[in-house]
User: Fold these one by one.
Assistant:
Number 1:
Amino acid sequence: MASFMIKVAGEGLVAPAHRLADSGPTTGYAIIYEVQNVPEGVPVEAVVQAFKGFQAPKDRYEVDYGELTAVG
């Protein structure tokens, strides 16, 4: 299983973050989320696309890939 770092900017842009980024709020208006348990072979672009339709939690910054795919 893989994990990807996803950045959600204050204006709503969702994009891959640097793999060494720390999860949580940044010094700007972005929040970095770590998407864990991504199956091998799933590209980061697919994770970003799934995250765009996901209501990200405000109290934690680690999200399981299963939560993204359960959104429908």
Number 2:
Amino acid sequence: MHNPYQSTATSATEVIQPPIKRPLSVWLLLLVLGVMTIALAIGTARSIWLMAAYPSVMLSRFGANTALFLALVLFGAGALVGIARRRQWGRWLGLLVMVALTAAMFLMPDTTHYANAAQQSGGFFGRTILMPSLMLLWAYRFGFSRKAKRYFAD
């Protein structure tokens, strides 16, 4: 006999499950991505203000650069929203941001002046081995760990 007033859940544990907490790796990415997005938004707003103040001097390339920065701001804001709302696409956008940050570490030239060869080799080790390894660990914990999979599960 079917009871129409019975709960649709199969067990009490499904009904009384506490909400899943955000892993530390998600909090860190939200912080880093938020700061980067705010900085890009401020820079883009200043560029647009400069273009409005001096329209005859500005080149078309300057407008293209501003459009690129505006697209990056929208991408960052979208990634923030996706990660905060636990969407799968937010998880993949977050991983894409981490890959871009790691690639930027390799592509940016090292302009540090070292006092001796020991400091130079330490800087090389940190830049080419230690930091990418930490980024790889962070990306794993953000996108593929058990806690992250539970966090982003729909």
